[in-house]
Amino acid sequence: MPREQAAPREGLEEQLGRLEGAPYGRYKGLVGTWRLPGDGRSGATLRLVRAQADPFAPPARAALHLPPDAAAFPAELWATPVRRRALASFLARRAAEAAHGEKSLRVDAGGQEVLDRSSCTVGADGGVTLRFGLALPGKGRRIDARYAQRLMRRTVPRVAERALRYGALDAAAVREFVETVEDSDALRAALPGLGLVAFVADGAVLPRGSGVDDRPASGPGVVPFLSPENLRVTVELPHAGTVTGMGLPEGVSLVVGGGFHGKSTLLRALETGVWDHVPGDGRERVVSRPETVKLRAEDGRRVERVDVHAFVDHLPDGSDTTDFSTDNASGSTSQAASLCEAVEAGARVLLIDEDTAATNLMIRDARMQALVAKDREPLTPFVDSVRSLHRDHGVSTVLVMGGSGDYLEVADRVLMMDAYRPSDVTARAREVASVPTGRHAEAESFPAVVHRVPEPSSLEAESRGRRRVRSRGEDALTFGEHEVDLRSVEQITDSRQVTGIGLALEIMVRRGHVDGERTLAEALDLLDRDLARGAESLLAVRDEDFAVPRRFETAAALNRLRGMRVHRQSPLPAGNGAGA
Description:
This protein is α+β, with helices and mostly antiparallel strands. Helix content is 28%, strand content 23%.
């Protein structure tokens, strides 16, 4: 990343004027920090981080900074990291609105989640920095200086004035946004002390507008959430005060009900409950433990030296399932590997929907047990180890299940969704489960997790001497010579998180977190310490639009990187979670 000038330079407009009609590459001479044209004495600066090589290249990168006195936000709005993240998210959205219609300015504002983004950061002193893409104007391959001058003299200062100065904003809206995020964060932090894995507030709106519209659904058919009485929990939040809703306890929870009655919608809300949401989203007070991971089957994924013998006892080709590798996993082996990898990375809550799970890994009923002898069936179903996973390893599970009653026997609680209304049917489920089916358990416990040590030489971000780390939407990451398929990593909600994952992987290698000696969990612990600084930690790698990722999505990308190689490591004693 280019160094900033020791002091802001004067006369950006004059410099641009001298470039009229010059070759487009001359824009590179403007890289550095300038006083914001027309700003007076507020101290606002505009930094051109990098220029475009030609008019058809990706936009230039620029940063607009307002010092604390110029931004003038009350100290209580930026007093803590959570408040700074919330305030920055609000300002990025207002900046995107202020720049709307100006095709040369591109501000990454995000969607319904309030993520830690590089596009806007608020410093511990209250200063504000907005980073954005800037398509520098040209006529063919020549500089269009007059258009560039208008951008610097009018458009950029207008964005600063309308979006980054407290006096120009709706003070009540700013405060509501910050307090909503702070309440959500406080609610999530309270879950472990309450013995809960998730909380869904009464009145929450869980359905979304459509499969491509993540805004809340509306209309007479939308049913607000209402907790079953015996699961209702009351919590006190810093700003909202007393809030009631469903507290989902630790252990094994089953969500049942007919098709289209809201089972998967509830699970999806828990899946995104690891993130805070904007006011009006409907899920502002739907939160899950930070260590929650959604799992699914994933045909064709790569698996590198994972101990899956808890689920796969033997294979016809004689492969060692305690040290299992494949470049083309089946649905069952992929889900088994993903579960073991998640626990290795430190997951404490697993979410599974039968619609996207491998059926033969989830259940083997009595009739199938009678027909196919165990010595001919390599798979051990999850139903037989899910309780041990919680009892012996402290990992809870929430399952959506509509087709297998065998899970009723192992569930601590059973929640039924009926026309989007939940009810606790645990007592009835136990009555049903008391009728013998003739099925017998095929496992007694979930074994200790085997930790792996990645080889740093296998994590190369360069290809043919050039750095290649970029996202392709939410579905894929280019990292060096490899394309990482992330379509089944369902808690990625934004393409900018994929960019953040790539930068996080670079940090893990550059800073020696992956050193050939540390386990993956230990390397992720070091990454967490870096990412506690927020976007600044990844900006040290590269100034571009990204959202700071969690360790779990970063680990998921690492595990799907086809070039990644690992050593083996001894298992931890039962009860010691990865990364604990």
